[in-house]
Amino acid sequence: MSEKMIHLIITRQKDGEGGSYKEEFKLPYRENMNVISALMEIRRNPVNANGEETTAVSWEASCLEEVCGACSMVINGKPRQSCTALVDQLEQPIRLEPMKTFPVVRDLVVDRSRMFDSLKRVKAWVPIDGTYDLGPGPRMPEAKRQWAYELSKCMTCGVCLEACPNVNDKSEFIGPAALSQVRLFNAHPTGAMHKAERLNTLMDGEGGLSNCGNSQNCVQACPKGIPLTTSIAALNRDTTLQSFKNFFGSDNNF
C-alpha cells in the first residue's frame, strides 16, 4: 500500500518587488500534523513535488498555540492561523497564500506595519507617567472587566483586516482591530484619560469609523471570537456623543 501523502500548493514570492508563482510539495503524512509542521518538513528538506531542489519556504511563527498571531496566512482561501490549521481537517491540495491586505516580504511573510501604525494612531495603550511605582490603579467594575477581557484577547494577527473588504490599498481604513482596541482602552479607568482624543481620531480625516461598511466579515474570521462588530456599534454611539461635546464645547459626560 502506498504511503499517504500531503499535497501543498504554495504561492511564493522572492521579495516585495518580484512577481508571485506557485510551487507544489508532497510530504509524507503524520498524525496530528498542522500546516506549520508541514512547512517545517519543507524547510528540513526543500524539494518540490517534481523532485527538484528549491529554496525553503519563508513563513512566520512563534508561540505555535494561537497566541502570538504571527503565523497568519490564507489557507484554502480563508485567512486564519496556520498553527491551528490541522491537516486532517483541510481539503487537499492544501493551498497556502500570503495575506493580500499587507505587502509581501517573502513567500508567506507579510509586513503588518499598516495595522501597527493604526494602533499607534489611536493610542492603543494605557499611558503612565514614568516608570516609578504609581500604587494600585483604580478598580474596574466586574461586568465591564468581563467584556473588556474579551477585547484584550486580540493578538494582532491581521486576519480581521484580511477578511474586511474595506481594508485595501485604495483605502486608509484603520480596520476592525484598531477600532476594537479604542473601545478597550477607553473603557480602562486610566486609559479613559485619552478617550476624547481617540474618538476624535476616529472622526477626523480618512480611514476612521465612517469607512466601515458593516460587512461583518471580521467577526466571523477572528480566531479569538472577539465581538468586533459590537465594538464598532458601541463606537458609533461614542463618536456621536463626542461630536455633540465638541460642538457645545462640553467636557461633561452624556
From TrEMBL:
One of its GO terms (biological process) is tricarboxylic acid cycle. It comes from the Bacteria. Its EC number is 1.3.5.1. Coiled coil: none annotated. GO terms for molecular function: 2 iron, 2 sulfur cluster binding; 3 iron, 4 sulfur cluster binding; 4 iron, 4 sulfur cluster binding; electron transfer activity; metal ion binding; succinate dehydrogenase (quinone) activity. Its cofactor is [4Fe-4S] cluster; [2Fe-2S] cluster; [3Fe-4S] cluster. The keyword 4Fe-4S applies. Keywords: 2Fe-2S, 3Fe-4S, 4Fe-4S, Iron, Iron-sulfur, Metal-binding, Oxidoreductase, Tricarboxylic acid cycle. It holds the Pfam family Fer4_8. Residues 145-173 form the 4Fe-4S ferredoxin-type domain. InterPro entries: 2Fe-2S_ferredoxin-like_sf (IPR036010), 4Fe4S_Fe-S-bd (IPR017896), 4Fe4S_Fe_S_CS (IPR017900), Beta-grasp_dom_sf (IPR012675), Helical_ferredxn (IPR009051), SDH/FRD_Iron-Sulfur (IPR050573), Succ_DH/fum_Rdtase_Fe-S (IPR004489), Succ_DH/fum_Rdtase_N (IPR025192). Belongs to the succinate dehydrogenase/fumarate reductase iron-sulfur protein family. This is succinate dehydrogenase. The gene is sdhB.
